[in-house]
Amino acid sequence: MTHAEGVDEGQALARRPQSLMFSFLGIYVLGRDVAVYSGSIIDVFARLDVSEEAVRSTLSRMVKRNLLTRHRQGRKMYFGLTEHATQVLEDGRRRVWETGAVNRDWDGTWTLVGFSLPDSRRSTRHDLRSQLTWGGFGLLQNGLWVAPGIKDVESILAPVEPGGSEPSDFDLSDHVTVLQARALSPTRSADLVSKAFDTEQIAERYRAFLDRWDTPHPLPSAPDDLARQLLLHTDWLQLVRQDPHLPAEHLPRDWPAIRAEQVFRTLARTYEPGAGKLADAVLDELAR
């Protein structure tokens, strides 16, 4: 992937309405007991060239997924967070502001997950692989996944449910083994990183982010700082959610995540005052 292709990919990700919605909710609704009028959400998203139809469709889907609740007042419909959405957004907040993009505190521990599922459980196997990848695991060898640090594997496996045709009493825990370990000679931790993770692909994502944002005037076509803020946070959250948080000591000294994180934090502080004023003027909120 070239840098230009990476930037195009990042722009496509950033303009997905649901990804933008998570950023919007995380910044302006999380931690506040309020619901927001759909019309004002539509006004915000118009700044991002997201149509009214796309916003309404996204809100409806998120209600069906138990992420949002509806609150009617007169002829207006307001949307607030469910407990499930709060948990999802809190996880995103921690990844953005606490975990960070660079793992400088690794203690040498690895979490290993091994599983073996029959062909009749293909749907479950696919879901399990997706959840492990999302949870920061890399495939070390057939059926054996590894991630740096101590991982809460139970929470990672929780969303994995048997497919519709599979017996409801299927117990995934009977097929999964979870261990904590340290690399011992002749195995080196650096070998585990190189075998289980595509570090060049990870680095390329950060370079694409820098191509887009590490410029004197990022996104000059965006109408204002509220639009830039939402696009910036969406891009960054996509990056850190895909990043397995590999130990810094086993990555190149010029690892692009270091510079990318500096750029994100600087721009986030820069956009916050102006974006907040615009949001205050646009958003119609209902106390819950």
UniProtKB/TrEMBL annotation:
InterPro entries named in the record: PaaX-like_central (IPR048846), PaaX-like_N (IPR012906), PaaX_C (IPR013225), PaaX_trns_reg (IPR011965), WH-like_DNA-bd_sf (IPR036388), WH_DNA-bd_sf (IPR036390)
Domain Transcriptional repressor PaaX-like N-terminal: 16-84
Residue stretches making up the Transcriptional repressor PaaX-like central Cas2-like domain: 104-151
Protein name in the entry: PaaX family transcriptional regulator C-terminal domain-containing protein
Coiled-coil intervals: none
Signal peptide: none
Domain of life: Bacteria
Limits of the Transcriptional repressor PaaX-like C-terminal domain: 197-277
SUPFAM superfamilies to which the protein is assigned, alphabetical: Winged helix' DNA-binding domain
Short name of one Pfam family: PaaX_M
